[in-house]
Amino acid sequence: MADLTVNSVRPTTTTRSKIVTFGATITAGQALYLDVSDSEYKLADANSTEIIAGSNDIVIALTAGADGEQGLVAFGGLVVVMCTPDLAEGIIYLLSDTPGGIKPGSDQLSADNCTVIGVGAAGEELDLTPLYASGQTVA
Asked: What is 5-133's CATH topology?
């Protein structure tokens, strides 16, 4: 299976969100990490350093924006993610080794950092449960 192709993402009544400053050009639905050197959110990548893989903070962009612009991100609760392939209930979704990408847990490579983005819920929803697990793999 490949990374999710996100067509749209929107909050629900349970989404926990905040306004942040983007440090790159961002598309809604991409996974971001906090770069503590400049306090900007940039594209997360499981095939990079622990920081870039989300060990500090991992969020999902709810809005698009350019470098230096402010945007809305989700860091918890349920978000609706319209994507291809469809989200599957009960499936763990991880940070991909494609910058900003999200993939099913079954696609985890042993060389990648393991960062859980969330778990598929009913109705195209993703239950955001960000967790960085250094050196762990998903069976």
From this structure: Virus Head Decoration Protein; Chain: A, (2.40.300)
